[in-house]
Amino acid sequence: MRRRRNDTKTQEKKRATKELFSALKDPSVVIMSDWLKIRGSLKSWTKLWCTLKPGVLLIYKTPKAEHWVGTVLLSACKLIERPSKKDGFCFKLYHPLDKSIWAVKGPKGENVGSITQPLPSNYLIFRAASESDGRCWMDALELALSCSSLYKLTAKHGREGDLSTSSESSHILHLLQSTALTDAELLLQLNDTVLLGNHNMEHDGFSDKSERETHDDWDNTANENGGRLTEESDVDQSDELSPGVQATAYVEQSTEEMAEVGEASQVETVSEENKGLIWTLLKQLRPGMDLSKVVLPTFILEPRSFLDKLSDYYYHADFLSQAALEESPYERIKHVVRWYLSGFYKKPKGLKKPYNPILGETFRCCWLHPQTDSCTFYVAEQVSHHPPISAFYVCNRKDGFSISGSILAKSKFYGNSLSAILDGKARLLFLSRDEEYIITMPYAHCKGILYGTMTLELGGKITIECEKTKYLTELEFKLKPFLGGSSSVNQISGKIFVGEELLATVDGHWDSEVFIQEKRSSHQETLWNPSTDIRSARLKRQVVQSEHQGEFESERLWQHVTSAIMDRDQVRATQEKFVLEEAQRKEAKERGDKAWVPRLFQQDAVTSEWSYKHTDVRAWDPELCKVQFEKDGIIQTHEKIQRQHNGLSYSHTWPSQQKVPLILYHDYQSLPHRVVKGR
């Protein structure tokens, strides 16, 4: 009789278990969803929306599930409680063998996730708002961890079933089934779950024991921290090794002015009121005069600093990432020329001049590279006021390139025209090849000041030269002839040499299509064309919000002038500009003969060239380097240091000695993507 009763209970238990498992195998089921804080690679916390489904934890930036950040495969994870000294409740998901816990694609087949602060690849630490919320998440995760094993079992025996017809559910199901374990691994995972437990049938929730007896058994076998494994504290060894390491918070630039292609965007129609201002200004000038000390009217100003303007060349820095991978020096210089041309089509509408930077003014920004999981950082500083010299440094160690240089801006007045000359050079270095390219710049030419139509063009000859490979590119930006038509606007032509040998010719329009024709084969192809597809694929620039900038960072420094210009209030713009210029004159008077010392750049006593104080041109070592980042204008690398202890080798993380802490990025291969919210 007793045996029959036990058999009946066993059957009921199996039926209930089967129904429960069947429900939990459906990827459309949401076990739990709520906001959780997740700790980044360098110990900063990011608030993200977490949706727990059978076998997976989906992470989004918002509850609308529109901006997917990443998917954690629970089949690869273990769960542990992590007591915290701070408010809330912490727990940790981790891979026991320190392998990646992330899925390659998103719930809808996304290849690249939204950007946020960098997250670890082999574990995640979560913080719930309260202990009750945290323990609820722990219970739900243990349930979901069990579900992941059920998917394995289903996949191994070919019983996927038609659980859901939605695209999201099918992608999740595919992810889970694609990571199926062996039978032995599956049994080990099932034996570790809460649903099957570490007990035999006589001690589980379906046995003859009462619910209270079962709970007492669990309490007796549990540790002192609530029945779950725990870690000792909220601080691990890497915390002790790299205290205070934080990253600059960047946000994606929200708006950007992009003029149309052709001459129409380079013509300025001057109002009668502004014509009077121009005539007043011209009366003070003489042909050949340098305009660097002349105060220009605000109506011709582009509302951003020249330091900002110089960053226009890096929206297609991924071309340099491609160049660094090319084995052929000819292909490398083609990519370099293509990148060089990509810096000119972004132009303001009309004839506009950026602000002359204030001495000591700085500007910083960066571009994320989704394809290589890297970041190109840009830092610039006004290192001299008379003469006006702007120094800049660009670096992406992971993709293998850096650029440094300085520009002396000169302006010459010729009567009916004037030219803005960018005197200086940039040095492009491919780190792993120790290969340097010296690059010069064209000048900007404005004509029609006294009569005719005011028009802005680029002119002059430039060179891109590599001494190591003997490759040389010569390009000429051509001014429109007096009788030329629209087809003669923005023309460019050039040649590529190796030594004395001509390899190819270049011809086209720098703001539209440029062709390259190889000399030997006469083969012609498009070298550059800023088409709609190319423009949409440009890298997204990340900037520092104004309220987080230092008082001498460009946007914050010029914010009142910019606001007045955007409001079309030229009187207020002139007043605000005068306040800045007057403050600069006062500071210079107080400084007297004492030399100005730039914060980020230094001048070579022999060559007089300016260089970045924190330059790091070491080739990227993936075994040593974790991530490159920037803090307070200092670009640095977070590295792993190999140490020996009791005969065992282990690694910790430590910022590179040449720098100061700040981070922005992680590995796109192991983790979906990130950068703070849009501006």
Automatic annotation (TrEMBL):
PROSITE patterns: OSBP, PH_DOMAIN. CDD domains: PH_OPR5_ORP8. It is found in: Endoplasmic reticulum membrane. SUPFAM superfamilies: Oxysterol-binding protein-like (SSF144000), PH domain-like (SSF50729). It is a single-pass membrane protein. Residues 203-242 are annotated as: Disordered. Keywords: Endoplasmic reticulum, Lipid transport, Lipid-binding, Membrane, Phosphoprotein, Transmembrane, Transmembrane helix, Transport. GO terms for molecular function: cholesterol binding. GO terms for cellular component: cortical endoplasmic reticulum; cytosol; endoplasmic reticulum membrane. Belongs to the OSBP family. This is Oxysterol-binding protein. The gene is osbpl5.
